[in-house]
Design goal:
Order of helices and strands: HHHHHHHHHHHH
Helix content: over 70%
CATH superfamily: Tetracycline Repressor, domain 2
Distance between the termini: 45 Å
CATH architecture: Orthogonal Bundle
Radius of gyration: 22 Å
Largest sheet: none
Mean pLDDT: 82
Strand content: under 5%
Number of helices: 12
Shape: globular
CATH topology: Tetracycline Repressor, domain 2
CATH class: Mainly Alpha
């Protein structure tokens, strides 16, 4: 199985897939000469105009999302559509021209945050690091610090109505899960560890860390550094256990590692 050269490539592919349902257009098979022969020349031109309009629309949406992120950072997580528009020097009508409602805009903000801030930092932590423990702690530290450093943006992103929130969280989990699965596959293959559970392992780790961050952003019962330490302790222990069993369910269940004596 062939993999892209680095985690960032995996993330770009996943983000493209997330956006494809709304922003991409189907490509037409065959060339324009065939279309002319079949009497479809006007349709081809119309499709070309439509593609150009969609490209312009997507570029404008991105500008508005970046403007929203700046507004949230300056005005706080409770900012409304009127305040966001005023901060960007536009009318609220412009926002509703490109986003169906605030939930739609917030969903786009979450994906943009993942694409421009979380993914690049995670890619740096996961790529080119030989020490697996350092890689593990580095990736966890990126997740915690990136969110802890921008609490207003995180709270704004989490304010989506339930159904939309679940969609956005699913998108983020898939993007980061694919990055982690790629890295785990490469490292496990090097150690000749069974790859059958790699998708389960990666999604469990991502989902568990996301859930813990949701809880921590509200409760803050430990410091950010302590949270990183505890998460690293648990994740690294799981990785060591998987490696000792060579990733094999049969090997694990045949010799389940006992807890140390109290």
């Amino acid at each position: 199985m062939q993999f892209p050269p680095n985690p960032a490539a995996i993330a770009r592919s996943a983000l493209a897939a997330v956006n494809a349902g709304v922003d991409s257009l189907p490509t037409r098979s065959g060339d324009s000469r065939e279309a002319v022969r079949s009497g479809d020349a006007q349709e081809v031109k119309a499709d070309g105009r439509k593609r150009r309009w969609e490209q312009h629309r997507q570029a404008r949406r991105t500008e508005l999302v970046d403007g929203t992120i700046a507004a949230v950072g300056e005005l706080g997580s409770e900012v409304g559509m009127d305040e966001i528009a005023r901060h960007m020097g536009i009318s609220k009508t412009v926002l509703y021209r490109y986003f169906s409602d605030k939930n739609d805009l917030t969903h786009a903000v979450m994906l943009r945050f993942i694409e421009t801030q979380l993914v690049p930092k995670l890619a740096g932590a996961l790529a080119g690091v030989d020490d697996e423990y350092a890689m593990t702690r580095g990736a966890i530290e990126v997740c915690v610090q990136t969110i802890a450093d921008q609490p207003a943006l995180y709270t704004f992103a989490m304010s989506i109505a339930t159904a939309k929130q679940q969609e956005a969280l699913s998108d983020s989990t898939n993007v980061i899960g694919q990055m982690l699965a790629h890295v785990m596959t490469v490292r496990m293959r090097e150690r000749e560890i069974d790859l059958g559970g790699v998708d389960v392992f990666s999604r469990m780790l991502v989902g568990g860390i996301e859930t813990t961050l949701d809880w921590w952003m509200v409760k803050r019962t430990v410091t950010a550094e302590e949270l990183i330490d505890y998460l690293t302790m648990m994740v690294w222990s799981a990785i060591v256990g998987i490696a000792r069993a060579d990733g094999s369910i049969a090997k694990f269940t045949a010799d389940i590692p006992p807890l140390p004596d109290h």
